[in-house]
Structure formats: structure tokens, C-alpha cells
Design goal:
43% of the residues lie in helices and 19% in strands. By secondary structure, the protein is of the alpha/beta class. The strands form 3 sheets. An 8-stranded mixed β-sheet has the order 5-2-1-6-7-8-11-12, with helices on both faces. Strands 4-3-10-9 form a 4-stranded mixed β-sheet. A two-stranded antiparallel sheet has the order 13-14. Helix 5 links the parallel strand 7 and strand 8.
Length: 357
């Protein structure tokens, strides 16, 4: 299958190497040509995992997004949600009917990006899909070297518009067999693990994160008190899903720590052992704040309000992060209010999510 990977981060390099090794024709696009130069010159990526290190050729690495998207059946955007608007505008002139765009994860980016493409004047009938996490726990070890610690074994995925679900899921499974349908894009967005695992870790490790040059939030930072808050936050997410009629499995985050039933299987110990998550985290600029809290957690809080689900942990964490950022995160750009959906009835929103706007 011809697959375009859009972005230059950890997940993008992991996807480009992994899918190329699986036999797909992969085109890796990054806006910053200089940052991509090492891959362009070498013609590939060094992939490291439990099987060791090896060179994986990539069909095309380019700063020309038109070249990357041309003929692509599947477009994978494993970039932070904060980059989705810019990527959507760059994609807009090149998308054509029938293409499938996969956001792992999405933070309701399927609706947001679709709107931006249409606002740019492209009416192409594209399917947008989003899942609960990246397909990989991975970190770059150099400009063209990626270390994959764990691959996802379950990827619950929602599709927008949902009328395209069967076709879109079939295409995505050609690259990621772990994908399974979980309903519409709202259901997919409410599977996002980042806004559940990362905000408590940021808030409850704020002092050591600011004090030490590097800190492993998944080792020193994941203590019983933190876990208790994370579990309570996740129960609020699940309560929202249930209130909206979305069925199980909900992939409770407790399974990430306790057994092999979560999206990555039994991954927490491997994540800790890798050492790749001992890093410097700036509480104002890291994606755990800008993506998972300002966008993802604010989105969850707004959906809870709309669904009339009590979510004190969600609201409290959002207020604390807003306190040290100095702004009210309840007014974030991914809230239902900002997306002009807060006044919709459930039936109206379901129709939009099924049929498209």
C-alpha cells in the first residue's frame, strides 16, 4: 500500500520505519527539509527494537507534501494535535476522494482537520480516523535513528464521518492490524490516553520537573498517590463514554500498569527499563501540557459538562495547570464551545458525526 507519513517526530519516524519494513511504499514528509536531510541523504531510517538495529529503506523522504500525498491510499499523521491545523492547511490542496487520514491519537482532530480542509476550498470526500494512542512507544536516538520499545496490540478507532467507517477501518488495518472500530470520532477522541496519563504526572511531579535537569515521570514520578488520581480521572472519562452510550471495551488505564490487556499490552515495565523517558520536561512548552492538557483534557472537560457528567478530577487538574500557565483552560480551542458544538443536542451531534458537515 502507498502510505504517506506526515511529521518529523518520534511517532512519525517509528511509523515510517515500521511500515516500510512491513513492505509498504512509504513517503515521509516533514516541512523542515534541513531536519529531514539525514534521512533524505541516507535513503532510510535506522530502526532499533528488541530484534536489534537495522537499516530500513524508505521510498521517499521529502519536504514536498504534494509528492508525499500523491496516490497515497492511507495518510498517517502521528504528530501532536498542536500541529494538526498547520498540517491540515498544507494537505488541503492535495487531498482527493477516497483517501483515508489516520490520526494516532487525534484529540478530536478528525473534525477539526476536516473543517480546515473544506475551509481551504477542497470538497474531497475523505475519511478521517482517530485512535487512543500512538501505535508505538518510541523515541528518536538521532536524526534518523528510532528506538521502538513497544508496539500497540489494540488500537480502538473512531471514524469521521462514521458512514465511511467500514471502508476506512479496512484500509487502516492494512497497515495496522491492531485497529478495531469503536464508533464515531467522538468515541475515538474519548479513547485518547494522553489526557489521562500525562496531566496528573505533570501536576503531581511539578516540583521535581522544575528542580532536576531530567526526571523519569514513569519511574520516580509514578507513585501510589499519582496512580490513585490517574485512576480516578480515567473513571471520569469512562463515565462520559457510558453516558454517551459508547460501549466497552473502554481500555481503562489501570490495565496499563496491572496486566496485558491495555492498548500496548504489558508495557509499563518495558517503558521504565528503556530509560528513554528520563528527560527534561518544561511545564509550559512540553506536549504533555500543550497537547494532552490544553487540548485533550480541556476537550474531555467540555464533553463532561455537555453530557452532564460530574468530573471534579478533570476540572481540578485543568484548573491547576491553568493556574501555573496563567490562563483559563476551560476556554481552550478544542472545547465543544470553541467548536460551536456545545448547543447541539445528542441527536444533532450524532448526525453530524455520522454524515459529516
Amino acid at each position: 500500500m502507498k502510505i504517506a507519513i506526515l511529521g518529523g517526530g518520534h511517532g512519525c519516524h517509528a511509523a515510517a520505519a515500521d511500515l516500510s519494513e512491513a513492505g509498504h511504499e512509504v513517503r515521509l514528509w516533514r516541512r523542515d527539509a534541513a531536519a529531514l536531510q539525514a534521512v533524505i541523504e541516507a535513503g532510510g531510517i535506522v530502526l532499533k527494537d528488541a530484534q536489534g538495529a537495522r537499516e530500513v529503506p524508505v521510498a521517499l523522504a521529502t519536504a514536498d507534501i504534494g509528492a508525499a500525498l500523491r496516490g497515497a491510499e492511507l495518510i498517517v499523521v502521528p504528530s501532536p494535535a498542536t500541529a494538526q491545523a498547520d498540517i491540515a492547511r498544507a494537505m488541503a490542496p492535495h487531498l482527493v476522494d477516497g483517501q483515508v487520514v489516520f490520526l494516532p491519537p487525534g484529540s478530536f482532530g478528525s473534525l477539526v482537520m476536516s473543517r480546515l480542509v473544506r475551509a481551504a476550498g477542497n470538497p474531497a470526500d475523505v475519511a478521517w480516523a482517530e485512535t487512543g494512542t500512538l501505535p508505538y512507544l518510541a523515541r528518536k536516538h538521532g536524526p534518523r535513528e528510532i528506538n521502538i520499545t513497544v508496539r500497540a496490540i489494540h488500537l480502538p478507532t473512531g471514524v469521521y464521518p462514521a458512514r465511511h467507517a467500514e471502508r476506512a477501518l479496512a484500509v487502516i488495518r492494512g497497515a495496522y492490524p491492531a485497529v478495531h472500530g469503536c464508533g464515531d470520532a467522538l468515541s475515538g477522541a474519548l479513547m485518547n490516553a494522553g489526557p489521562i496519563i500525562h496531566p496528573p504526572l505533570m501536576v503531581m511531579n511539578a516540583a521535581p520537573l522544575q528542580h532536576f535537569p531530567s526526571w523519569d515521570i514513569h519511574t520516580e514520578g509514578t507513585q501510589p498517590a499519582v496512580r490513585a488520581v490517574t485512576d480516578a480521572l480515567d473513571l471520569e472519562r469512562i463515565a462520559v463514554r457510558q453516558a454517551l452510550g459508547f460501549g466497552a471495551p473502554h481500555y481503562p488505564l489501570a490495565d496499563h500498569y496491572a496486566n496485558d490487556r491495555w492498548m500496548y499490552g504489558d508495557a509499563h515495565k518495558k517503558l521504565q527499563k528503556s530509560g528513554d523517558w528520563r528527560e527534561h520536561i518544561d511545564l509550559h512548552t512540553h506536549r504533555y501540557i500543550t497537547e494532552d492538557t490544553e487540548l485533550g483534557l480541556a476537550f474531555l472537560a467540555s464533553v463532561a459538562r455537555w453530557a452532564r457528567v460530574d468530573a471534579p478530577i478533570t476540572q481540578g487538574l485543568l484548573a491547576i495547570v491553568g493556574g501555573f500557565l496563567g490562563r483559563d483552560l476551560r476556554r481552550g480551542e478544542r472545547t465543544l464551545d470553541a467548536l460551536d458544538l456545545a448547543d447541539f443536542s445528542r441527536a444533532q451531534l450524532q448526525q453530524v458525526l455520522h454524515d459529516g458537515e
